Amino acid sequence: MLELENVHAYYGNSHILQGVSLAVPTGKCVALLGRNGAGKSTTIHTIAGLHKSQRGSIRFKSKPVESLTSYQISREGIGLVPQGRRIFPSLSIRENLTMAARKNLKGDTSEWDIEKVYELFPVLKEREKNMGTQLSGGQQQMLAIGRALMTDPQFLLMDEPSEGLAPVIIDQIGDIVAKLKESGLSILMVEQNISLACQAADEILIMNKGTIVWKGTPDELLENDEIQHKYLGV
Amino acid sequence: MSIYIVQLLTGVAYGMLYFMIAAGLTIILGVMNVVNLAHGAFFLLGTYFAFTFMSLHLNFWLALLLAVIVTAILGIIIEKLLINKLYGKELEQVLLTFGLTFVIADCAKWIWGTEMQTIAVPELLNSSITIGEMVFPAYRLFVVLVGCILAVILWYLESRTRVGAIIRAGVDDRAMVAALGINVRLVFTGVFAFGAGLAGLSGVLGGPLIGMYTGMDSDILVTSLIVVVIGGLGSWKGSFVGAILIGLIETLGKIWFPSLSMLIVFLLMVVVLMIRPQGLYGKVVSQ
Ligand SMILES: Nc1ncnc2c1ncn2[C@@H]1O[C@H](COP(=O)(O)OP(=O)(O)OP(=O)(O)O)[C@@H](O)[C@H]1O
Ligand SMILES: [Mg+2]
Question: Closest ligand 1 atom to the C-alpha of A35?
Fold first, then answer.
């Protein structure tokens, strides 16, 4: 569904992505692991069009998207759940969701709307009048996921959904990701939490210094202490 | 005493004119991060367009509507053709919009000449309301009413509509708004045109009060920049309060200290900035 081929990206003179190639098949969840500063968020931002790649190709549903702007990429069906959630503080919880709503132009009912998001996250409905930033970290993560779902995506980019959350909440996030996958979404998830990644993903990629250095199943990673030690500092 | 009450109305009416122009200026600043120094020129063009439409024997109301629309369209053209290229480049924006003020002012001189003109008060409002000894010109009351209606409309748009939510979100985190599939560029064009239209509206409504003369664009720009600073950058509510304050102080200042009224306005700005550096309604920006 999503394919990156030899993608290079820079911040000024620093060469951050040094030829990233990866693929996320339809209906699968792929986890991208790696140390701080490995270039994981840059990969996510480059796919979402928030950062421009210098070279290489990004194809979504076989269509090249690397030269599209971020709003066009979103309309192609890629939803972003960014690192740090980036909830809009000036908006209520409800507004955070409705502002992202995608009117389905073809007239057929869209997969996701505010009722479905509230069904998935009832706590958001209870507190819909509150401002987005009055939520706990876990609830803000739900809001960020719900907001991305409102754009009616077929594909989700999730950047460290477990960051800063308590272990119980991280388990909940794992369940949510499983539900999203069941609903037919394909997911590329950046994670630092190995157990969440291995629980949620069908395939694991490890990134180091701007390239993918290892690829395998969750079980292969859990058995491979050397890789865990070398690239993930376990 | 009663003379002062009548002057209060005049002050508030002027304040409403400042509010209409400053609201656009401050919204453009808050949403797009552009200090639009050409905003006074939109005010001037609004007046002159209406003057032209009226000299073609259109009535005041039709001239008002057309002038606002034409000014807004001009705003769209300027945003699409010029400002669009300079997002994020503050110095270039300042030079561009400053340059535009000269270009537009010279075009205005060329088209309309340098003679001082006025727009006649529309017949419907060419009367006054007498309460006791006080005589209130109906047109000034009307301007105050329009300003208040505009404030209600802005409040509604900002807090009760999806477009308003998108614009507030854009002030918080523009890139995230784009990543949610919203064409931020289009929002910018719309905001700029809306602001230009408001400045045009202010210009037309100001026609019967201020008249039209060469240099009015820079006079009004300075005043509305002060309003924006006093009110707090990006806050139209602050502009509402700030504009009324300035309108009142300027008008009363002209009675008490005729030669110092502009100085008093600047002093007010200094005092506000000393007490609240972010302006009356401004948010504290942490860098
Ligand atoms: N806006 C920026 N300007 C300049 N350099 C940046 C910028 N954003 C990231 N970098 C640099 O790019 C490199 C990769 O950053 P990136 O955010 O992609 O890492 P990451 O793998 O997501 O790390 P983390 O786990 O901490 O989120 C880092 O060295 C970082 O310092
Ligand atoms: Mg990151």
Answer: 25
Which of the listed residues A8, A15, A33, A40 should we mutate to test ligand 1's pocket, taking the one with most ligand atoms within 8 A of CB? A40
Say if ligand 1 is within 6 A of residue A210 CB: no
Output the 3-class SS for B26-93.
HHHHHHHCCCCCCHHHHHHHHHHHHHHHHHCCCCHHHHHHHHHHHHHHHHHHHHHHCHHHHCCCHHHH
CB contact under 8 A, A98 and B162: yes
Interface test with B, best of A46, A47, A70 (most B CBs within 10 A): A70
Q: What is the pTM of this model?
A: 0.89
Contacts of A155 (CB under 8 A, 6+ apart): A1, A2, A24, A60, A77, A78, A79, A185, A186, A187, A188
Of ligand 1's atoms, which has the minimum distance to the CA of residue A190? Answer: 22
Nearest-neighbour CA in chain A from B196: distance (Å) = 25
In chain A, the domains with their CATH numbers are: 2-232 (3.40.50.300)
The yes-or-no verdict on residue B280 having pLDDT over 80 is yes
Residue A95: which of B165, B182, B184 has the nearest Cβ? B165
pLDDT digits (tens, 9 = 90+) for A161-179: 999 899 989 999 999 999 9
pLDDT band at A106 (very low <50, low <70, confident <90, very high): low
Q: What is the mean pLDDT of residues A110-125?
A: 88
What is the signed CA dihedral for B276, B22, B77, B85, rounded to 10 degrees? -10
Model confidence band, residue A228 (pLDDT cutoffs 50, 70, 90)? confident
User: What pLDDT sits at residue B287?
Assistant: 43
Give B56 to chain A, closest Cα distance, Å.
44
Instruction: Kindly give the distance from the C-alpha atom of residue A208 to the centroid of ligand 2, in angstroms, as a whole number.
Output: 13
B257 pLDDT band (50/70/90 cuts)? confident
pLDDT surpasses 90 at A103: no
Which residues of A are less than 8 Å from B176 in CB distance?
80, 82, 86, 88
Neighbours of B60 (CB within 10 A): 20
CA of B21 from ligand 1 middle (Å) equals 42
* HEC per residue, B78-129: HHHHCHHHHCCCHHHHHHHHHHHHHHHHHHHHHHHCCCCECCCCCHHHCCEE
In B, which residues are within 8 Å of A82 by CB distance? Answer: 176, 179
Lowest mean pLDDT across A187-196, A200-209, B103-112, B130-139: B130-139
Average pLDDT of the residues of chain A: 91
Kindly indicate the confidence band of residue B245, based on its pLDDT and cuts at 50, 70 and 90.
very high
pLDDT in tens, B211-234: 888 889 999 999 999 999 999 988
* Long-range pairs, B137-141, Cβ under 8 A, ≥24: B137/B9, B139/B208, B139/B209, B140/B9, B140/B10, B140/B13, B140/B209, B141/B9, B141/B13
